[in-house]
Design brief:
Helix 3 runs antiparallel to helix 4. The longest helix is centred in the N-terminal third of the chain and has 21 residues. Strands 1-2-3-4-5 form a five-stranded mixed sheet, with helices on both faces. It has nine helices and five strands, in the order H-H-H-H-H-E-E-E-H-E-E-H-H-H. It binds iron/sulfur cluster. Iron/sulfur cluster binds next to helix 2 and helix 8.
């Protein structure tokens, strides 16, 4: 049995909320996903290009939009290397269009920090007890007035109500200033950037504490359902074996323990 990570994170809470067993595969056993997520690679490449832009400005240089597009393309193609079925033509065009649009509208934002780390002490709002693992994360952009910008890429527009978004709730809990969400929507014919304000209402601390307690108690129950068909750990899950003592001989061999 492996250890859980010493710090929590928004991604850990989101994964655990989806499926405890998936959490176990990723964060305890350290298994690699069985297939690459094109959407994740795409989002990471867009983040990289926009981060490059603002880091260049912070360094006193004058970045050019084509250079940011090149950063996107390089990251996309590196991330999708070996994914034979990936049709990168559409992704390349959609990503470049998003980078161009975002920089045209928001390229002059007064960004003072990119990927700024934060550490948030977690507590149970009902008992006041401080939980043993702090939550560690990164704000995408911090503006001169303290506002936080969180970037998201999506293939469709978000609904109007994001008040129960577990990841955004973590950023809001860690920030003393409002969190603004910039949703970069990639579409076949055009690109859109939606701006939404995230308004925390206190629910997050209750949800995060309940999830964190489940992780600390090592309750890694599966969540069988429709999303299993697209799960990145479906084979590992099918191989799940026990000998009555929570041992996983098939998975132990896979992770070399
Ligand atoms: S296949 Fe289903 S139950 Fe198994 S880890 Fe994935 S989501 Fe969880």
């Amino acid at each position: 049995m492996g250890d859980i990570p010493p710090t929590s994170s928004a991604s850990q809470l989101v994964t655990y909320a989806m499926c405890g067993r998936k959490y176990y595969f990723i964060y305890v056993l350290g298994l690699e996903p069985e297939k690459k997520s094109t959407a994740l690679v795409f989002g990471s490449a867009v983040h990289g290009a926009l981060g490059f832009w603002f880091n260049e400005k912070l360094a006193g240089r004058v970045p050019l939009v084509p250079a940011a597009e090149q950063v996107f393309l390089a990251d996309l193609n590196a991330g999708l290397a070996g994914v034979s079925e990936a049709d990168t033509t559409d992704l390349e065009e959609q990503g470049r269009a998003l980078v161009r649009l975002y920089l045209k509208k928001y390229g002059e934002l007064p960004v003072v920090a990119v990927e700024q780390e934060f550490v948030l002490s977690m507590h149970d709002p009902e008992t006041g007890e401080v939980l043993p693992r702090p939550l560690r994360g990164y704000f995408d952009f911090v503006l001169g007035d303290g506002r936080v910008i969180e970037l998201k890429t999506s293939s469709r527009k978000w609904g109007a109500d994001v008040s129960k978004h577990l990841q955004l709730g973590a950023y809001a809990a860690a920030s003393t200033r409002p969190v603004e969400v910039h949703v970069l929507v990639r579409r076949r014919r055009d690109a859109v950037v939606d701006v939404m304000n995230y308004n925390p209402d206190g629910w997050w601390h209750h949800a995060a504490a309940a999830l964190e307690r489940g992780i600390l108690a090592r309750h890694f129950a599966p969540s069988p359902g429709p999303m299993c068909s697209t799960c990145d750990f479906a084979s590992a899950c099918s191989d799940w074996k026990t000998d009555g003592h929570h041992r996983l001989p098939v998975l132990d061999a896979r992770v070399g323990t």
